[in-house]
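Reminder to self: tokens first, then the designed residues, so the page reads top to bottom the way the pipeline ran.
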């Protein structure tokens, strides 16, 4: 299941939530207000036996198009 980061439009509370679908209806756990999905960072690596292994010299690339 994907993990998304959200911010409440009402109380500005930020939180992460695992959802089954990217378009799932999510509300603030504090005030039940509307939330906005935020852009989050992620890492891509090889998966072996349920864990992610990255090379020891791995350095994430910064976005230059934003």
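Designed residues (66 positions):
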């Amino acid at each position: 299941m994907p993990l998304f980061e959200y911010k409440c439009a009402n109380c500005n509370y930020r939180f992460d939530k695992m959802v089954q679908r990217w378009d799932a209806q999510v509300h603030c756990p504090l005030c039940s207000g509307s939330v906005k999905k935020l852009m989050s960072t992620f890492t891509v690596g090889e998966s072996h036996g349920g864990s992610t292994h990255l090379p020891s010299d791995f350095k994430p690339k910064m976005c230059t198009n934003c």
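The radius of gyration is 15 Å.
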